[in-house]
Specification:
about 800 residues, alpha+beta, eleven-stranded mixed sheet, eight-stranded antiparallel sheet, 26 helices
Length: about 800
């Protein structure tokens, strides 16, 4: 019997491997040859003159164009050429049409996207754009569509994934780009899941008892919603996870003045923390025209350099963990669900019908989106739960502007006044922008819409019937923190706003904070810094806060002789190293996870405790610290001692029975998933496993400068980290440094699909060459774009 079962399992494994292998071979057969070409020519409608796209040995495109609009067009061509599948997934995510690719599994995400109306808002915004921005978006879209037309003429499709699914892409439109900007704002500034989780806690254990779980203060218990709505939060989180923006996305960055740099000019460093995926969200690019030169990190689908430099300034963006949305519980008319009570009157809500389709075009669902003055009701996201139909979402991202115009002005600024003027029009996500220029100035400026609220909501739903709880506008731009190098030789930006002078009431989300503390410590210890040194700081793996937490947790514990005592000894001897070979880092995090699980279960019960424990970092860590700070007998050393003993047992079962084989890298492992793996089912999902990479042992934790966030107590589910790194010396803008967790190309058959990953894992930076002599020496291939009429312009030298 046992032998028969073993043979059956063996055959299943063999068949699975053969099917997966056949799928991969089929996919590579379908790979258009033009996608593999390093050089070529294409005729593109909309060009004012000729353009050259030179790719270097890293696959980075260097665009030489005779005008700014031609540079936008060429960037669109390059984005589509290397990453069109990713662009397609992102625009479908924003517009709520993922199910037309992946079936019923993505219907919850599509419901949320349609309810938010990102695509509708983008269409309306395009009509309001200034003439210059409209021209730039039209040029970019012409470049994307120029590539689509070219690839159809030689093979038939722009991405192997689309060929696999049998889907023909629609032309790219300017509103698609605006929808992606709005999607980014939602993903990086969302708090819907947190609001619903906290609301459930208040309902289950009361306002005072739940205060440890809130970012600030004791919650205002005005809510009347019910815990089953937590599924709404899961839909929002799954939606974010599907496009690589799950968890506590944010950033870390700093600028150093020229007086404290080796070169005599400022240094700028930016680590955007995003979800990991393959290909990564960032795409490195460089363009040059007679009027300007730009280089840095872009996102396919959007012609914006989120962090980078031109010939006069450099910039970076650090997203703040601020709440920019609220839930309002509306009072609906008992006889008409389209009427609601607000400000002493019954009002009629707007409504629209949204049709969700599958790949064959069949309508599988029709949802009605009802919108009050506060925003859309969430019943269209959770149609099976009638309680959701009374919750309205107020979000800053529903305003008229997405921020694209501000970002395009920002990247072309030549000095601080232009840069700051552009930020006045930036709505979100709320961020600290870092700035440095060749004149020696360093600055930081908080920008984005922060709601003025009547009370501190504690992230809980508010009564919609009274105008008292409505937002009172936004905090004025001139009241937002702005700092200069005159105050300090260096300026640090993290997801937390550490500015004692800022007195405005803001609803903040959780933030770990350890990485920022460590960065400031290193900067205080340094005299003069060079680019090599600050790049090394980006990959530092010391967890100072972890060491402090260990001392506070276990120093006074008294486990009996045996495993618990041995775990305690390892923890007390740990020096904070979180490299992949660290024993102490592994034991520290497993111990904290075991202790957090025990304390949460005792406080909340098993079901809710699991929800909190599975929440993205840093919530479980923050809650754990607060529990222990209370020092109540119920949360005393007995829990610590039991957790010490459980840690030994857990490691022996989950890692190895031999403690000599325990190391942080055995548990802390990163997998880069392809979209097929995250979103696909059946053979498509199996194929996605083949197209992903990893798992790889990785260093760091939430409190180290090599910042890695895992999903709650699940240490092997890494969600967020420095998937892109950027550093530049203003004395040598032509040789900025970057790191990319993946590669430039989205084509699995390309050499640049994952070639940057090895350097990223080793913490070894790559150079973004912006000097054309270097580019020529490292040339891997050249694409020449020409207008159909043959009109030529002289490219930039």
């Amino acid at each position: 019997m046992r032998g028969g079962l073993l043979r059956a399992l063996t055959w299943i494994a063999v068949v699975g491997a053969l099917v997966g292998g056949a799928a991969v071979l089929t996919l590579f057969y379908l790979l258009p040859r033009a996608d593999r070409g390093a050089s070529g020519r294409a005729s593109v409608q909309g060009l004012e003159g000729s353009v050259r796209i030179v790719r270097d040995s890293y696959g980075v495109p260097h665009i030489s164009a005779g005008s700014s609009l031609d540079a936008f067009l060429a960037l669109g061509f390059a984005h589509a050429q290397d990453r069109f599948w990713q662009m397609e997934v992102l625009r479908r995510t924003a517009r709520g049409t993922l199910s037309e690719l992946f079936g019923r599994a993505t219907l919850p995400q599509d419901r949320l996207a349609r309810t938010l109306g990102l695509g509708r808002d983008a269409e309306a915004e395009f009509e309001r754009l200034c003439q210059q921005t409209r021209a730039q978006l039209l040029a970019y879209s012409a470049g994307v569509n120029g590539y689509l037309e070219h690839i159809r003429s030689v093979r038939g499709t722009a991405a192997l994934e689309l060929r696999w699914l049998g889907v023909e892409p629609e032309p790219w439109r300017p509103a698609d780009t605006l929808a992606l900007v709005r999607l980014r704002s939602w993903m990086l500034g969302r708090s819907l899941g947190a609001s619903l989780l906290l609301d459930r806690l208040v309902r289950e254990i009361g306002g005072v008892a739940s205060q440890d779980f809130f970012p600030t203060g004791v919650p205002n218990t005005t809510s009347g919603t019910v815990g089953t709505l937590l599924r709404l939060g899961r839909s929002a989180d799954d939606w974010a996870r599907g496009v690589g923006m799950a968890g506590p996305v944010g950033s870390l960055g700093f600028v150093v003045s020229g007086e404290h740099s080796e070169s005599g000019l400022p240094l700028l460093v930016n680590d955007p923390h995003l979800g990991f995926q393959l290909p990564p969200l960032f795409y490195v690019a460089h363009w040059r025209t007679p009027d300007e030169e730009l280089g840095g990190g872009t996102w396919p689908g959007v012609p914006v350099f989120w962090t980078g430099a031109n010939q006069k300034i450099a910039w970076g963006q650090v997203v703040l963990h601020a709440s920019v949305s609220d839930l309002f519980e509306e009072t609906l008319h008992p006889g008409d669900p389209h009427r609601y009570y607000h400000g002493g009157n019954w009002k009629t809500a707007a409504s629209r019908l949204e049709k969700l389709r599958l790949r064959d075009g069949a309508v599988v669902e029709e949802i009605e989106v009802v919108t009050t003055e506060h925003g859309p009701l969430l019943g269209s996201v959770q149609p099976e739960d009638p309680r959701a139909s009374s919750l309205a979402l107020r979000w800053t991202g529903h305003d008229e502007r997405s921020g694209l115009e501000a970002l395009l002005r920002l990247q072309s600024a030549s000095g601080w006044e232009e840069f700051r003027a552009a930020l006045r029009e930036f709505p979100g996500p709320v961020s600290t922008f870092l700035y440095a220029d060749r004149a020696g100035s360093i600055r930081s400026q908080v920008a984005g819409h922060l709601p003025v609220r009547a009370i501190e909501t504690g992230l809980l739903p508010l009564p919609g019937r009274s105008r008292y709880y409505d937002w009172r506008g936004y905090i004025e731009f001139d009241q937002l923190p702005s700092r200069s190098g005159a105050e300090s030789p260096w300026l640090v930006a993290t997801t937390r706003l550490d500015d004692a002078s800022f007195k405005q009431p803001v609803a903040w989300l959780w933030s770990a904070g350890g990485a920022g503390e460590r960065l400031r410590q290193l900067l205080r210890q340094s005299s003069r810094l060079g680019l090599k040194r600050v790049v090394a700081m980006q990959r530092e793996t010391h967890s100072a806060r972890g060491v402090a937490a260990v001392a506070r947790l276990v120093k006074g514990a008294a486990p009996g002789p045996g495993p618990g005592e041995r775990i305690q000894k390892i923890l007390l001897e740990w020096d904070g190293d979180t490299s992949v070979g660290s024993l102490g880092a592994l034991v520290h995090h497993v111990f904290r996870a075991r202790l957090a699980s025990r304390l949460l279960a005792a406080r909340l019960g098993e079901e809710i405790a699991e929800e909190v424990a599975r929440a993205s970092e840093p919530l479980p860590g923050v809650v754990l610290a607060r529990f222990l700070d209370r020092s109540s007998p119920r949360l005393g050393q007995g829990y610590v001692e039991r957790a010490l003993e459980e840690t030994w047992s857990w490691l022996s079962i989950q890692v190895s029975s031999n403690p000599r084989k325990w190391s942080w890298g055995r548990m802390h492992r990163l997998r880069l998933q392809h979209d097929f793996e995250r979103l696909g089912k059946g053979l498509t999902g199996l194929l996605g496993r083949r197209l992903g990479r990893g798992p790889f042992p990785v260093p760091g934790d939430a409190d180290s400068l090599w910042t890695m966030h895992h999903r709650g107590v699940a240490l092997n589910e890494i969600e967020v980290g420095p998937a892109f790194r950027y550093a530049v010396d203003l004395a040598d803008v032509e040789h900025a440094q970057f790191g990319l967790a993946g590669g430039q190309s989205g084509h699995p058959g390309s050499l640049h699909y994952d070639d940057a990953l090895g350097d990223w894992l080793r913490g070894r930076p790559r150079t973004l060459w912006m000097h054309w002599i270097d580019v020529s020496n490292l040339e891997e291939g050249v694409w020449e774009l020409r207008a159909p009429s043959g009109v030529e312009a002289t490219p930039a030298e």
